[in-house]
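Would you mind writing out a protein's amino acid sequence and the numbers that encode its backbone to help me picture the idea?
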Amino acid sequence: MLTLTSPVEIWAHRVPAGVKLAALALATTGLFLLNDPLPLALALVATVALYASGGRLIAAHGLRLLLPLWPFLLIVGLWHVWTDAVTAGMVILLRLVTAVALANFVTMTTRLSDMIAVFQWLARPLAPLGLSPRRLALALALTIRFIPVMLDRHAQISQSWMARSPRPPRWKVLVPTTLAALDDADRAAEALRARGGAG
């Protein structure tokens, strides 16, 4: 399975995972408290500067991670233009791009093992209820790791379809993509069982 963590190490890699996740939570909350495009645009500019501080490779990788957002941005933008609510549309688009970019930056600069440790610590109060903090953290880690895998699998299935048919795949690749996801999940479960489970 793949990971979103960048192999290029920058200053943000040395910041503790808990600090970055707390800052991300506060920043995202702040974005949803803002209702004016200007401060949201300034927040986006600050996010761009954050990426630029890591160098060209980090900035380029961050931009690639945002590319899957463009269909949603297009739909939301066109809808708000159609309903004559351009300002509201700008607020939504700026929030979405900035929040996702910040989350990507944290993920790119944080080792998955460090994230698991933080979430396991946060889940400790749930232990008396019978919920294993380790299992909850592992489930989250698997979800994060499977995101790029499933995007890559969907792209492979779409390319296979286009190689065999002149028509675009559209919704017809959803079933094989879903089956591939279930197959990958089953294999991951078997690998966990072979290694003694989640603990």
Remarks:
- Residues 130-199 form one domain.
- The chain has a mean pLDDT of 83.
- Residues 44 and 98 are 5 Å apart (CA to CA).
